């Protein structure tokens, strides 16, 4: 095991105060995050050198990146908070804006949310809402507005309450993918473009959207490249590190992120050539499928990898569902670009759709592409659509002779022992 390196998430109390945050509460959360990060990440053996950049982004998560965002805001960049990969990021970038994924992955903010929200709802929704009402997230404090969506019931009803705290607009996402749904979706995309234009007072031009498309495609390609590299045995990077990078993708500056991720991939290319990696040759290779894992939710990956397995793919919105589809770069009319944008986002196979056969096929495809040996379906507690869809994923795995395990969990540490026991037994089964 690697030596324990010293690490701290840096404190910026003056900045937090100026953002109207509860500094005392937040200071405690900062220390907990630093501690957990050190134990979860810095103890890993043989980490790629290029992970330094991503470690630094965590050290600067509550300050360095926030200063950049505030600086851009002063120069007129709108800052938009989102909770779903359905909100077209290209239009935010085309309006010189900053897109911040605000999903919550921490148990620390849940008590704040439970003062208002019912307890029996998704922990991701509670965590995010708690960050805002508790004034304990510098990202939430920096956004000009939030763009929510009508995917699941927990989210769409929470927007009504969130709107009291921060201006919250809602994009209607249909629950089916028929022609009439596409027509309605295109209108929603046009409304979103208009919203961005109203905020900046400038029209989004074809040229700006083309440029933004290139930025987003390049970012998505770098994430695809990372995913492809993980298909090698031994895996050149841990699942935990890959998950961290995917989480950082939702708040880092996209051009710099792409450059740094490509540099990491160059290093991983070298590792693959030399047969160097982070896992033992017989480590069971696991594809994790299901609900997204917002930062700092590293629970399942940590359990799998400290039990001797290696996670080689995330079939979820934190993973491939965010970056598997690119947008055409050849269009030259705004109407065509918006239509293509709609088509690109309609390919997202979230379980809120019915039917959602594409996702079942996608899990099997990614299982094969990543050379996995087992599927663990991860479902956040009270997420009904993913929980029910797991039945069909299980059936498809059984039909294809793929070992399958379903885990339902929240952000607490209470079920860690129980999950660990189930994961260990599953890894034994995969080993045969
Ligand atoms: S496209 S997965 S990011 S909706 S886990 S909050 S669904 S109760 S996150 Fe999602 Fe968009 Fe779909 Fe992806 Fe609700 Fe389920 Fe919680 Fe969820």
Features:
four-stranded parallel beta sheet; single chain; 19 helices; 10% strand; binds Double cubane cluster; 432 residues; alpha/beta
Helix-strand layout with pairing:
Blueprint: H1 13-18, H2 23-41, H3 51-59, H4 64-74, E1 79-82, H5 89-94, E2 98-101, H6 110-114, H7 123-133, H8 138-142, E3 145-149, H9 153-162, E4 168-171, H10 179-200, H11 206-229, H12 239-248, H13 254-274, E5 285-290, H14 299-306, E6 310-315, H15 320-323, H16 334-346, H17 357-369, E7 374-380, H18 384-399, E8 404-409, H19 416-431
Parallel strand pairs: 1-2, 1-3, 3-4, 5-6, 5-7, 7-8
Helix pairs in contact: 3-12, 7-9, 10-16, 11-13, 14-19, 17-18
This protein binds Double cubane cluster (BJ8).
Strand content: 5-15%
Bound molecules: Double cubane cluster
Outline type: globular
Q: Which structural class should the secondary elements be placed in? A: alpha/beta
Structural features, described:
The structure is a single chain. This protein is α/β, with parallel strands linked by helices and 432 residues long. 53% of the residues lie in helices and 10% in strands. It is built from 19 helices and eight strands. The chain has helices at residues 13-18, 23-41, 51-59, 64-74, 89-94, 110-114, 123-133, 138-142, 153-162, 179-200, 206-229, 239-248, 254-274, 299-306, 320-323, 334-346, 357-369, 384-399, 416-431, and strands at residues 79-82, 98-101, 145-149, 168-171, 285-290, 310-315, 374-380, 404-409. The chain has a four-stranded parallel sheet, with helices on both faces. A four-stranded parallel sheet has the order 6-5-7-8, with helices on both faces. Strand 3 (145-149), helix 9 and strand 4 form a beta-alpha-beta unit. Helix 3 crosses helix 12 (239-248), helix 10 crosses helix 16 (334-346) and helix 17 packs across helix 18 (384-399). The longest helix is centred in the middle third of the chain and has 24 residues, at 206-229. It is globular, with a radius of gyration of 21 Å. It starts with 12 loop residues before the first helix and ends with a helix. The model has no long low-confidence stretch (mean pLDDT 97). The structure holds Double cubane cluster (BJ8). Residues 84-86, 122, 124-125, 151-152, 154-155, 291-292, 317, 348, 350, 352, 380, 383, 386 line the site of Double cubane cluster.
